[in-house]
Amino acid sequence: MDKIIANALKTIASLSLSSTIALAQNKPTQSDFYNREIIPLPKGEIMEIGSIALMPNKKIAVGTRRGEIWICSGAYETDLTNVTWKKVYHAAHEPLGMFFKDDWLYLSDRSAFGRIADKDQDGNFETYEMISNDWGMTGDYHEYVFGSTPDKEGNIYTVNCLTGSFNPNAQWRGWGMKIAPDGTTTPFASGVRSPGGIGYNNKGDIFYTDNQGMWNGTSCLKHLKQGSFTGNPAGNIFYKDAPNMGKQPLEPKDKSRIATQAERIPEFVPPAVQIPHGKVGQSPTAIITDHTNGKFGPFQNQLLIGEQTHSQVQRVYLEQVNGVYQGAVWKMLDGFSCGIVPMRLSDDGTLFVGGTRRGWGSRGDKTFSFERVKATNKIPFEMKTINLTKNGFKITFTKPLDPKPASNPNNYKCAAWTYIYQKSYGSPEVDKLNPKVTTATVSKDNMSVTLTLDKLTKGHVHHLYLSNIKSSQGSSLWHPDVYYTLNQLVTK
Amino acid sequence: MIRKGKAHLIRLNTTPHSSTENNIRIYLLKNIHIPRVSLAMNWKCSLITLQAILISALLTTAAEDGKKLYAQMCAACHGDKGQGIGNGVFPPLQDSKWLKGNPSRVAQILLHGIKGPVTVKGKSYNLAMPAQGSLSDADKVKVIRFIKKEFANEESTFSLTDLLDTKKQHQDRTQQWTSKELLKLYPFPTKKSPITNLIMKVYHGKWRQLPDLSKLKAAAVEEEHNGFISLNNINSNNNFALLWTGDINVPNDGTYQLELTADDGASVSIAGKEIARINHKGMMHPSRAQKGTIKLTKGTHKIKVEYFQFRRNRGISIKWTNPAITDKSQTSQWLTEKNIPRRAAPVIDITPTDNKTRMYQNFITGSTHRTMAVGFPHGHNIAFSTQNCQPDIIWKGRFIDAGKHWTGRGQGTQAPLSNDIINLGKGIAWSSDTQTLNLKLLGYTMDKNGNPTFNYKTTNSDLIFKEQYTPKEKSLTRNITIIAKQDQKITLRLTTDEHTISEKTAYIDKKLIINSPNLQSDKNKLFSVIDLKKGLNTYKIQYSWTK
Questions:
Q1: What domain range is B37 assigned to?
Q2: pTM (global) more than 0.80
Q3: For chain A, which domains are there?
Q4: pLDDT tens across B356-374, in order?
Q5: Whether residues B144 and B208 fall in one domain
Q6: Where are the alpha helices (DSSP H) in B251-405?
Q7: Which range is most confident: A14-18, A138-142, A478-482, B8-12?
Q8: Does A65 touch chain B (CB under 8 A)?
Q9: Best of B6, B362, B457 to mutate (most A CBs within 10 Å, chain A)
Q10: What angle do CA A199, A263, A385 make, to 5 degrees?
């Protein structure tokens, strides 16, 4: 009896070992590719993190919604049990943008863009210098101000939430502003509703995330293009004070479509990427570019977008068609312990993520958090890029494809829809279409596939589901769904 | 792998490791309806069959997803459809609250097991379930995600990292959990609302009956992600109205009854039809409850709820009932969250206690929107308008309660935490002979005790201001330094609100005494005229309290 059992166990052992490997390849999970770790916070402190700044010597500053600035050491170390914290400042007003430059910590908070320093080197940041407060406020909690890091000339950009998230009750509510190093503040773009973050793409163009609401059918990533109108007309009453912006754009027509109104209103730059509500996210926040040359996975130059409600990080690939940004969003990282607001990616490929869910719930059930994510040495089998072609899409992959399923058009399901562009809050998915993928051609190197669709629709989100695509080693896609916002058709 | 397999085999066949496992074994053998996999474990089976079944069983364990793992590892007791086995001996998982919400609750049961009395769907069970050591951590994740989806209709994002996190939190635990311990750590979540895409608009105004909100301009709008109609995000007791709109999911065709109570008034409409309305102000009382019915088809319909609050108590509750459904747990459901009587937000008193100065930048009742409240030692406090370079409010005693701004969404203005408050008034304090002086904040520097010196300049840089305060036991001294490019006369308003002023002594409302050079008064407002000389000028203004 013992012998039979022992034999059985040997067989089981060898079989289950090999099948474990097969399983790992078939059903990829996040921990295969990325490790998420919780960075300990100072005991007993309420650290609702709204901003993060990377500092020299592997120090990190975080700004809390209570207005405190803390500096952390040890957050890069393998062993996170030795992390230490020091409170250096306490008088900011919900800072939602922070960076470090030339011994100063620059803060964008509700009342001003300014900077703090520890001139006497005693560990407290005792010096505050105000750089700009050239915008109005009414005492409304929703009047958040998100500030960017500096561009090449040292300018920063803010996006100023509307009063109560929909009224222009004070100057420059609902605008993107440019602040020069000397504090000169000029209106930069209109159309802002309720932003959640601001950041650059790899070309240095500035983008912000805007939440679903009035004139925003679903949450989205918007290009904050100089002189443009980005979609919510509430703040357009301030054109009279913005001579550099030219004449006030035409009022958009209610219950229309973005594509229709973008043709009518020359200043209107449509959202670069629509983030389908519920399906992908509900409250997009931070925007950062992966500049780590592969240290954070195979997505160099792409954008990582924080997501507050779902406690996730999404990935965005952008391209320009006829000079207009558009592109795709994929789900990427999930399971964060709190709603994500700020993120920073260090040069060594560590993603730092700050969380708060006070006032707005999140899937992650901690009230606040500080976490980091590092890539493992395993590369996920994923769609890497997706570009619109004249009659379909070209998708590249992070690993070679098994050409057989990849060249079967039946393995690509497509649905397309758009949103009502309207004054009331949000929109259902409308004008639904089911374009058919008619051909799928795999490249010679098996690294990409070119799809032909029977119909491409301007202004629609095109959702492609790659149902049965495998890598040459038999792996399934980690995330088989992609959502491409088609603002412009390729005509040439 | 061998050791794991062996342990598994032994536990289920021969020598149990603990009395707990012994219990389980006994139940398995007693069980009349033994599922296929348990059958394999039955010692009566031939060993050849045992070998074959074990190989296939463990193979699928490794190669298949949570569903297969569940069938193998869990269904023996909990039933292949989560219905529970043994005619009420083992608890069901289908629709069990234990699977709802935080996945760590289930993870901890798989990691350490559970013993003692457990209530599931209203019935008490008194068993012991062992830790599921034969499931690898990755497999546990798969099982958790499967059962949450299958039996609790919850898509979970629970990952291996999450499992390792929760495992680490209780890594020293050797005992099985008790129901009480687990629910203290991971309480059951609140119920799911049938309403999605719920938007709440907030209106300010004084009404004694339900206003027509469609004609009014909202002050704020929010998406309420949990789908419940609730006042819990509204931080006020007086003079507001709310309008909720959303999509309500109607589970079946039928006639639905709706019951509304509110303090003060409210109305509910579904699919464009008003069902119940309480028009006037009044309290939440059964005598004021309004009922109505509506015929609805299965699917999604628009719901609109209007509400207004006059003053004092507040609340709204809406229950809807589908009498056609016989399952009592399904027939009626609250669309509202439990009314939590609004207490003032928890008090977070940030009065400095260490003889240092504390600053608090937020919205202070009676000051400008850009204001730094400063709490000095000896109980002196000011709300310093950083936009106007002057103290708008001065008070003695405790500093400020940050509770309102540091909880919820942080809306509203906060008054000082004291009864001895003098509103000096907001508005521009400084003027020259001809015009008001617009001072631009340059910044501030804090000394070692955190006491700030604020720096300003006029737009043309003709004047540079420094303002600092010295707190002493009996008084607060405001030290102003002005660097002037030329001789000039300027006026400093010390109060912009009207007060009862006794001119000779400059008593303000019989509470505060102001001493300032060249003090004058006009229409119950105090001011000083300052003769600036080219270069450095210094002034001291002393504030002391009569008590």
A1: 2-185
A2: no
A3: 46-133 (2.40.10), 383-485 (2.60.40.1220)
A4: 999 999 999 999 999 999 9
A5: no
A6: 328-331
A7: A478-482
A8: yes
A9: B362
A10: 45
